[in-house]
Amino acid sequence: MKQTLAALSLAAVTAASTFASGLAQAAEPIVIKFSHVVAENTPKGRMANHFKELVAERLGDRVVVEVYPNSQLFGDDKVLEAMQLGDVQLAAPALSKFSRYTDQLALFDLPFLFEDLDAVDRFQQSEAGQALLGSMEKRGLIGLGYLHNGMKQLSASQPLRVPDDAKGLKFRIMASEVLEAQFHALDAAPLKKPFSEVFTLLQTKAIDGQENTWSNIYSKKFFEVQPYITESNHGLLDYMVVSSTEFWNGLPEDVRTELKAALEESLAYGNQIAREKAEEDRKKIAESGRSEIIVLSPEQRAQWVQVMKPVWKEFEEEIGAELIDAAYAANQP
Ligand code: LMR
Predict the structure, then answer these.
(1) Could you tell me if the CB of 108 is within 6 A of ligand 1?
(2) Which of 62, 107, 174, 262 has the fewest CB atoms within 10 Å of its CB?
(3) Can you give the CATH number for the domain in which 277 is found?
(4) Is 6 inside any structural domain?
């Protein structure tokens, strides 16, 4: 009898563990690959890592976020196609990099559109700004939120004080027609190149300059190979976190709700970092002595505005005059 009981309980234990392992197999965690091109200690890098931690805390083994920084997995030229193929689930390309999917996001590239990040926040949180998150759904991409990096500065191999100083120089740009037009307005030569190539292009003097934020100029060491940086604040470099509609809408509802909440918290965190980094990294560059920071007088700045702003007209039809007006109006608190 004793033996029979022992055998029975052994059988029960075996059955229970087989059941448990079957369950574990059935509930393989969902893997979210988050691919980006910048360094980890940047607003986007810190946001992505924060999101990964929050998801680990809150969704335990139901969801695993893997973050791939520094173009390790995909550059921004490939990541959106890869997303549609299901090879990556989250990315946050600069708003300049969606032109193949929508005309409207080109809005954010218009030079001298926003005076500061507060204005950008007001517009992005407005009805018109939020509607843009859905502007690529027909193309299979869903916008989940905005993230700041900050205002762009111009770096070059020679001092840029007035627009004429940029004449004939080669500048790397992101893949955006507005940015192309902006440099054409300066009679400069824009070249669309991936972010991962910028340092080498500058170092080998294949190009003369580029435009980027303090955080990117510092973290990718552009300031070490660019003796001059003009504090122009002429444009915005912000991001949209995107996923494929198929992946995102296919998630179990409770998981999607938790992920959305974790993402929103991470974006708020990243936006705070963006503001801090712009100041911190500018300071570190100034202290390095490797690059001279040129501060424009109001008269000099007015000249840049005068030369670059006509670009708005060129893109008014494509972007929509109403949308441009709504964004510009956000400069008024
Ligand atoms: C660039 O290509 O200059 C930026 O979009 C990189 C980034 O993601 O900040």
Answers:
(1) no
(2) 62
(3) 3.40.190.170
(4) no
Closest to 35 measured CA to CA, from 81, 77, 92: 92
Burial class (CB in 10 A: 0-12, 13-18, 19+), 74: buried
Decide whether any atom of ligand 1 lies within 6 Å of the 195 Cβ: yes
Domain range spanning residue 127?
27-329
Report the chain (333 residues): mean pLDDT per 10 consecutive residues: 48 47 65 98 98 97 97 96 97 97 98 98 98 97 98 98 98 98 98 98 98 98 98 98 98 98 98 98 98 98 98 98 98 96
Smallest CA separation from ligand 1 atom 5, residue: 94
DSSP state of 28: P
Residue 21 counted as domain residue: no
Residue 94: predicted pLDDT? 98
Rg of the chain (C-alpha set): 24
**Residue 176 near ligand 1, beta carbon < 6 Å:** no
Report whether 42 contacts 213 (CB < 8 A): no
Domain count of the fold of the chain: 1
If you write DSSP's letter for every residue of 217-280 in order, what string do you get? HHHTTGGGS-SEEEEEEEEEEEEEEEEEHHHHHTS-HHHHHHHHHHHHHHHHHHHHHHHHHHHH
Contact 141 CB / ligand 1 (< 6 Å): no
pTM: predicted TM-score of the whole model, two decimal places? 0.91
